[in-house]
Write a structure and sequence with these properties.
Low-confidence stretches: 1-6, 8-16
Order of helices and strands: EEEEHEEHEEHHEHEHEHEHEHEHEHE
Distance between the termini: 24 Å
Helix content: 25-40%
Structural class: alpha/beta
CATH class of the largest domain: Alpha Beta
Largest sheet: 7 strands, mixed
Number of domains: 2
Number of helices: 11
CATH architecture of the largest domain: Alpha-Beta Complex
CATH topology of the largest domain: Quinone Oxidoreductase, Chain A, domain 1
Protein backbone atom coordinates (compact mmCIF):
# COMPACT_ATOMS: atom_id res chain seq x y z
CA UNK A 1 0.00 0.00 0.00
CA UNK A 2 1.35 3.44 -0.90
CA UNK A 3 1.94 6.11 1.69
CA UNK A 4 1.94 9.86 1.10
CA UNK A 5 2.82 12.76 3.33
CA UNK A 6 2.80 16.46 2.54
CA UNK A 7 5.90 18.07 4.03
CA UNK A 8 5.68 21.75 4.93
CA UNK A 9 8.50 21.68 7.46
CA UNK A 10 11.12 23.43 5.37
CA UNK A 11 8.71 25.77 3.64
CA UNK A 12 6.84 27.85 6.13
CA UNK A 13 6.14 31.38 5.01
CA UNK A 14 6.59 33.09 1.64
CA UNK A 15 9.63 31.05 0.58
CA UNK A 16 7.39 28.05 -0.26
CA UNK A 17 7.28 28.66 -3.97
CA UNK A 18 8.09 25.29 -5.52
CA UNK A 19 6.77 21.78 -4.96
CA UNK A 20 8.41 18.45 -5.72
CA UNK A 21 6.99 14.92 -5.61
CA UNK A 22 9.65 12.84 -3.83
CA UNK A 23 9.61 9.03 -3.87
CA UNK A 24 11.55 8.31 -0.71
CA UNK A 25 11.57 4.55 -1.24
CA UNK A 26 9.31 2.11 -3.11
CA UNK A 27 5.67 2.73 -2.26
CA UNK A 28 6.27 5.91 -0.26
CA UNK A 29 6.07 9.47 -1.59
CA UNK A 30 5.62 12.96 -0.23
CA UNK A 31 4.90 16.39 -1.65
CA UNK A 32 7.70 18.72 -0.55
CA UNK A 33 7.54 22.54 -0.55
CA UNK A 34 10.90 24.27 -0.95
CA UNK A 35 12.46 27.44 -2.25
CA UNK A 36 12.67 27.67 -6.00
CA UNK A 37 16.02 26.07 -6.93
CA UNK A 38 18.70 28.29 -8.43
CA UNK A 39 20.48 27.22 -11.61
CA UNK A 40 24.23 26.83 -11.32
CA UNK A 41 26.88 27.61 -13.93
CA UNK A 42 25.80 26.34 -17.35
CA UNK A 43 22.34 25.41 -16.06
CA UNK A 44 18.81 26.69 -16.58
CA UNK A 45 15.73 26.71 -14.39
CA UNK A 46 12.62 25.44 -16.16
CA UNK A 47 9.04 25.93 -15.05
CA UNK A 48 7.47 22.53 -15.77
CA UNK A 49 4.35 22.69 -17.94
CA UNK A 50 3.58 18.98 -18.19
CA UNK A 51 5.25 15.69 -17.26
CA UNK A 52 4.33 12.27 -18.55
CA UNK A 53 4.18 9.20 -16.32
CA UNK A 54 6.00 6.32 -17.98
CA UNK A 55 6.01 2.62 -17.17
CA UNK A 56 9.52 3.07 -15.83
CA UNK A 57 8.21 5.68 -13.38
CA UNK A 58 5.75 3.07 -12.16
CA UNK A 59 8.70 0.68 -11.79
CA UNK A 60 10.53 3.27 -9.68
CA UNK A 61 7.48 3.73 -7.48
CA UNK A 62 6.88 -0.01 -7.10
CA UNK A 63 10.58 -0.78 -6.55
CA UNK A 64 10.93 -2.92 -9.67
CA UNK A 65 13.56 -0.90 -11.51
CA UNK A 66 17.09 -2.33 -11.60
CA UNK A 67 18.97 -0.86 -8.64
CA UNK A 68 21.76 0.32 -10.93
CA UNK A 69 19.32 2.65 -12.69
CA UNK A 70 17.63 4.49 -9.81
CA UNK A 71 18.76 6.35 -6.71
CA UNK A 72 16.31 6.88 -3.84
CA UNK A 73 15.06 9.29 -2.68
CA UNK A 74 14.25 10.66 -6.11
CA UNK A 75 11.96 13.14 -7.81
CA UNK A 76 10.79 11.14 -10.85
CA UNK A 77 9.84 12.60 -14.20
CA UNK A 78 11.92 12.17 -17.35
CA UNK A 79 9.18 13.01 -19.88
CA UNK A 80 8.44 16.71 -19.67
CA UNK A 81 8.16 20.12 -21.29
CA UNK A 82 8.39 23.62 -19.89
CA UNK A 83 9.54 27.22 -20.17
CA UNK A 84 12.96 28.55 -19.17
CA UNK A 85 12.58 30.91 -16.18
CA UNK A 86 16.19 31.61 -15.22
CA UNK A 87 19.73 30.93 -16.44
CA UNK A 88 22.91 30.31 -14.52
CA UNK A 89 26.32 31.78 -15.15
CA UNK A 90 27.63 31.07 -18.65
CA UNK A 91 24.22 30.03 -20.02
CA UNK A 92 22.76 32.01 -22.92
CA UNK A 93 20.38 34.69 -21.56
CA UNK A 94 18.40 34.43 -24.81
CA UNK A 95 17.07 31.13 -23.47
CA UNK A 96 14.81 33.01 -21.06
CA UNK A 97 11.14 32.51 -21.90
CA UNK A 98 11.80 29.78 -24.45
CA UNK A 99 9.63 26.68 -24.62
CA UNK A 100 11.78 23.61 -24.36
CA UNK A 101 12.36 19.95 -23.68
CA UNK A 102 15.69 18.38 -22.73
CA UNK A 103 17.62 15.16 -23.01
CA UNK A 104 17.54 12.97 -19.93
CA UNK A 105 20.98 11.37 -19.99
CA UNK A 106 23.63 13.51 -18.28
CA UNK A 107 26.36 12.25 -20.61
CA UNK A 108 29.97 13.15 -19.79
CA UNK A 109 30.70 14.53 -23.30
CA UNK A 110 34.34 13.40 -23.14
CA UNK A 111 34.37 9.57 -23.31
CA UNK A 112 34.86 7.78 -26.62
CA UNK A 113 31.14 6.97 -26.95
CA UNK A 114 30.12 10.57 -26.37
CA UNK A 115 32.76 11.81 -28.82
CA UNK A 116 31.21 9.51 -31.43
CA UNK A 117 27.76 10.99 -30.75
CA UNK A 118 26.49 7.92 -28.90
CA UNK A 119 25.55 9.82 -25.75
CA UNK A 120 23.11 7.12 -24.59
CA UNK A 121 26.11 4.77 -24.31
CA UNK A 122 28.23 7.14 -22.20
CA UNK A 123 30.87 5.23 -20.22
CA UNK A 124 31.28 8.01 -17.67
CA UNK A 125 28.62 6.51 -15.40
CA UNK A 126 24.83 6.40 -15.53
CA UNK A 127 23.05 9.63 -14.63
CA UNK A 128 19.54 10.47 -15.88
CA UNK A 129 16.92 13.06 -15.03
CA UNK A 130 14.12 11.51 -13.00
CA UNK A 131 16.10 8.42 -11.97
CA UNK A 132 19.38 9.54 -10.42
CA UNK A 133 18.88 13.32 -10.79
CA UNK A 134 15.81 15.37 -9.76
CA UNK A 135 13.06 15.06 -12.35
CA UNK A 136 10.00 16.91 -13.53
CA UNK A 137 7.30 15.77 -11.09
CA UNK A 138 7.73 19.25 -9.68
CA UNK A 139 6.95 22.89 -10.32
CA UNK A 140 10.56 23.57 -11.32
CA UNK A 141 13.47 21.63 -12.76
CA UNK A 142 17.16 22.49 -13.13
CA UNK A 143 19.01 20.99 -16.10
CA UNK A 144 22.24 21.66 -17.99
CA UNK A 145 21.56 24.17 -20.77
CA UNK A 146 23.49 22.00 -23.23
CA UNK A 147 20.75 19.36 -23.02
CA UNK A 148 17.93 21.67 -24.16
CA UNK A 149 16.04 21.25 -27.44
CA UNK A 150 14.10 24.45 -28.09
CA UNK A 151 10.55 24.49 -29.40
CA UNK A 152 8.56 27.05 -31.40
CA UNK A 153 6.89 29.84 -29.47
CA UNK A 154 3.46 28.36 -30.18
CA UNK A 155 4.37 24.73 -29.38
CA UNK A 156 1.75 22.64 -27.58
CA UNK A 157 3.54 21.90 -24.32
CA UNK A 158 1.09 19.12 -23.39
CA UNK A 159 2.05 17.23 -26.54
CA UNK A 160 5.72 18.18 -26.22
CA UNK A 161 5.93 16.32 -22.90
CA UNK A 162 5.90 13.14 -25.00
CA UNK A 163 8.99 14.07 -26.97
CA UNK A 164 11.14 11.91 -24.68
CA UNK A 165 9.44 8.63 -25.74
CA UNK A 166 9.37 10.05 -29.28
CA UNK A 167 13.14 10.42 -29.11
CA UNK A 168 13.45 6.76 -28.09
CA UNK A 169 11.35 5.83 -31.10
CA UNK A 170 13.44 8.11 -33.31
CA UNK A 171 16.53 6.23 -32.10
CA UNK A 172 14.86 2.96 -33.13
CA UNK A 173 13.97 4.37 -36.55
CA UNK A 174 17.55 5.57 -37.01
CA UNK A 175 19.05 2.14 -36.39
CA UNK A 176 16.22 0.41 -38.28
CA UNK A 177 16.87 2.44 -41.45
CA UNK A 178 13.41 2.16 -43.06
CA UNK A 179 13.34 2.58 -46.81
CA UNK A 180 10.44 3.56 -49.05
CA UNK A 181 8.44 0.58 -50.26
CA UNK A 182 9.46 -1.80 -47.47
CA UNK A 183 7.10 -3.92 -45.39
CA UNK A 184 7.20 -2.78 -41.78
CA UNK A 185 5.61 -4.06 -38.57
CA UNK A 186 5.27 -2.39 -35.18
CA UNK A 187 4.77 -4.80 -32.30
CA UNK A 188 2.83 -3.12 -29.50
CA UNK A 189 0.49 -0.14 -29.71
CA UNK A 190 1.24 1.66 -26.48
CA UNK A 191 2.83 5.10 -26.40
CA UNK A 192 6.09 3.97 -28.01
CA UNK A 193 4.33 1.87 -30.62
CA UNK A 194 1.90 4.55 -31.77
CA UNK A 195 4.66 7.15 -31.93
CA UNK A 196 6.68 4.65 -33.98
CA UNK A 197 3.78 4.26 -36.40
CA UNK A 198 3.74 8.03 -36.97
CA UNK A 199 7.47 8.26 -37.63
CA UNK A 200 7.60 5.12 -39.78
CA UNK A 201 4.64 6.26 -41.88
CA UNK A 202 6.78 9.20 -42.99
CA UNK A 203 9.16 6.74 -44.71
CA UNK A 204 6.44 5.65 -47.20
CA UNK A 205 6.37 1.91 -46.46
CA UNK A 206 4.49 -0.45 -48.76
CA UNK A 207 2.67 -1.69 -45.69
CA UNK A 208 2.79 -0.74 -42.04
CA UNK A 209 1.14 -3.35 -39.80
CA UNK A 210 0.38 -2.71 -36.14
CA UNK A 211 0.32 -5.82 -33.93
CA UNK A 212 -1.43 -5.60 -30.57
CA UNK A 213 -3.99 -7.73 -28.71
CA UNK A 214 -6.18 -4.66 -28.09
CA UNK A 215 -8.38 -3.86 -31.07
CA UNK A 216 -8.92 -0.26 -29.95
CA UNK A 217 -5.18 0.34 -29.91
CA UNK A 218 -4.82 -1.30 -33.29
CA UNK A 219 -7.48 0.99 -34.70
CA UNK A 220 -5.66 4.00 -33.29
CA UNK A 221 -2.59 2.74 -35.12
CA UNK A 222 -4.52 3.11 -38.37
CA UNK A 223 -5.35 6.72 -37.50
CA UNK A 224 -1.65 7.32 -36.89
CA UNK A 225 -0.67 6.02 -40.32
CA UNK A 226 -0.74 2.22 -40.16
CA UNK A 227 -2.14 0.27 -43.10
CA UNK A 228 -3.50 -2.68 -41.08
CA UNK A 229 -3.58 -4.13 -37.60
CA UNK A 230 -3.88 -7.64 -36.21
CA UNK A 231 -3.59 -9.58 -32.99
CA UNK A 232 -0.38 -11.42 -32.01
CA UNK A 233 -2.14 -14.72 -32.72
CA UNK A 234 -3.09 -13.60 -36.22
CA UNK A 235 0.45 -12.40 -36.84
CA UNK A 236 1.92 -15.69 -35.65
CA UNK A 237 -0.45 -17.60 -37.91
CA UNK A 238 0.01 -15.68 -41.15
CA UNK A 239 2.73 -13.03 -41.05
CA UNK A 240 5.90 -14.90 -40.20
CA UNK A 241 8.97 -14.15 -42.33
CA UNK A 242 7.17 -11.23 -43.98
CA UNK A 243 8.65 -7.90 -42.86
CA UNK A 244 11.80 -6.07 -43.86
CA UNK A 245 11.75 -4.14 -40.59
CA UNK A 246 10.13 -5.00 -37.26
CA UNK A 247 10.10 -2.44 -34.44
CA UNK A 248 9.23 -4.05 -31.11
CA UNK A 249 7.84 -1.66 -28.47
CA UNK A 250 5.82 -3.82 -26.06
CA UNK A 251 8.43 -5.35 -23.75
CA UNK A 252 6.12 -8.33 -23.13
CA UNK A 253 7.68 -11.69 -22.19
CA UNK A 254 7.33 -13.14 -25.70
CA UNK A 255 7.65 -10.13 -28.01
CA UNK A 256 11.43 -10.13 -28.53
CA UNK A 257 11.32 -13.71 -29.80
CA UNK A 258 8.12 -13.30 -31.81
CA UNK A 259 9.39 -10.12 -33.47
CA UNK A 260 12.35 -12.02 -34.87
CA UNK A 261 9.99 -14.60 -36.35
CA UNK A 262 8.07 -11.85 -38.18
CA UNK A 263 11.15 -10.59 -40.01
CA UNK A 264 12.02 -11.91 -43.46
CA UNK A 265 15.45 -13.36 -44.19
CA UNK A 266 17.95 -10.53 -44.07
CA UNK A 267 15.44 -8.39 -42.22
CA UNK A 268 16.04 -5.96 -39.39
CA UNK A 269 14.59 -6.10 -35.86
CA UNK A 270 14.81 -3.28 -33.33
CA UNK A 271 13.86 -3.90 -29.69
CA UNK A 272 12.72 -0.87 -27.70
CA UNK A 273 10.57 -2.51 -25.01
CA UNK A 274 11.93 -2.93 -21.49
CA UNK A 275 11.99 -6.64 -20.73
CA UNK A 276 11.80 -8.27 -17.31
CA UNK A 277 13.93 -11.25 -16.30
CA UNK A 278 12.53 -14.50 -17.63
CA UNK A 279 11.43 -13.18 -21.02
CA UNK A 280 11.40 -15.72 -23.84
CA UNK A 281 14.82 -16.03 -25.43
CA UNK A 282 15.57 -15.48 -29.11
CA UNK A 283 16.34 -18.63 -31.08
CA UNK A 284 20.01 -18.32 -32.15
CA UNK A 285 19.53 -20.88 -34.94
CA UNK A 286 16.75 -18.81 -36.51
CA UNK A 287 18.77 -15.65 -35.98
CA UNK A 288 21.82 -16.98 -37.82
CA UNK A 289 20.06 -18.90 -40.61
CA UNK A 290 17.82 -15.93 -41.38
CA UNK A 291 20.77 -13.53 -41.25
CA UNK A 292 18.77 -11.08 -39.19
CA UNK A 293 20.15 -7.75 -38.03
CA UNK A 294 19.12 -7.28 -34.40
CA UNK A 295 19.46 -4.01 -32.47
CA UNK A 296 18.19 -2.75 -29.14
CA UNK A 297 17.50 0.78 -27.91
CA UNK A 298 17.75 2.10 -24.34
CA UNK A 299 17.04 5.81 -24.13
CA UNK A 300 18.02 8.16 -26.93
CA UNK A 301 21.23 9.87 -28.06
CA UNK A 302 21.31 13.56 -28.94
CA UNK A 303 20.85 12.85 -32.64
CA UNK A 304 17.55 11.03 -32.03
CA UNK A 305 16.29 13.92 -29.91
CA UNK A 306 17.05 16.22 -32.82
CA UNK A 307 15.09 13.94 -35.17
CA UNK A 308 12.07 13.81 -32.83
CA UNK A 309 11.94 17.56 -32.25
CA UNK A 310 12.28 18.21 -35.97
CA UNK A 311 9.42 15.83 -36.75
CA UNK A 312 7.32 17.56 -34.08
CA UNK A 313 8.06 20.99 -35.57
CA UNK A 314 7.12 19.78 -39.06
CA UNK A 315 3.87 18.18 -37.92
CA UNK A 316 5.01 14.67 -38.84
CA UNK A 317 4.67 13.74 -35.17
CA UNK A 318 1.61 14.65 -33.09
CA UNK A 319 1.61 12.98 -29.67
CA UNK A 320 -1.42 14.92 -28.37
CA UNK A 321 -4.06 12.25 -29.23
CA UNK A 322 -2.25 9.79 -26.95
CA UNK A 323 -3.03 11.85 -23.83
CA UNK A 324 -6.09 10.58 -21.96
CA UNK A 325 -5.65 11.77 -18.36
CA UNK A 326 -4.19 14.83 -16.61
CA UNK A 327 -3.68 15.25 -12.86
CA UNK A 328 -2.18 17.82 -10.48
CA UNK A 329 0.84 16.81 -8.42
CA UNK A 330 -1.38 16.27 -5.38
CA UNK A 331 -3.10 13.37 -7.14
CA UNK A 332 0.08 11.50 -8.04
CA UNK A 333 -1.02 8.27 -6.35
CA UNK A 334 -4.18 8.17 -8.43
CA UNK A 335 -2.27 9.03 -11.60
CA UNK A 336 0.50 6.45 -11.22
CA UNK A 337 -2.05 3.73 -10.47
CA UNK A 338 -3.49 4.22 -13.96
CA UNK A 339 -0.14 3.47 -15.61
CA UNK A 340 0.03 -0.23 -16.31
CA UNK A 341 -3.14 -0.75 -14.30
CA UNK A 342 -5.07 -2.44 -17.09
CA UNK A 343 -7.66 0.28 -17.70
CA UNK A 344 -8.39 0.05 -21.46
CA UNK A 345 -9.26 3.74 -21.50
CA UNK A 346 -5.91 4.82 -20.10
CA UNK A 347 -3.42 6.13 -22.61
CA UNK A 348 -0.75 8.65 -21.70
CA UNK A 349 -1.14 10.10 -18.20
CA UNK A 350 0.22 13.58 -17.50
CA UNK A 351 0.99 15.48 -14.33
CA UNK A 352 0.31 19.22 -14.66
CA UNK A 353 2.15 21.12 -11.91
Amino acid sequence: MSRVREDEGDAAGPSARSRSLVVERPGTHRLVHRDVPAPGPGEVLVRVAAAGICGSDREVYDGHRDAAYVRYPVVPGHEWSGIVEAVGGGADPDLLGRRTVAEGFRACQVCERCRCGETSLCTGGYAETGFTEPGAFADHLVVPARLLHLLPADADLRAAALLEPAAVVAAAVRVGRPRAGERVAVVGAGTLGLLAVQLLAASSPAELVVIDPRAARGEQGLVFGGSAYCSPEEADGGLRNRFDLVVETAGAPSTAASSCLLACRGGRVVLTGMFAPGATGIDPVHLSLSQLELRSVFGAPSSAWTDAVRAFRLGLLDPAPLITHEFPLERFAEAVALVGGGDPGAGKVLLRP
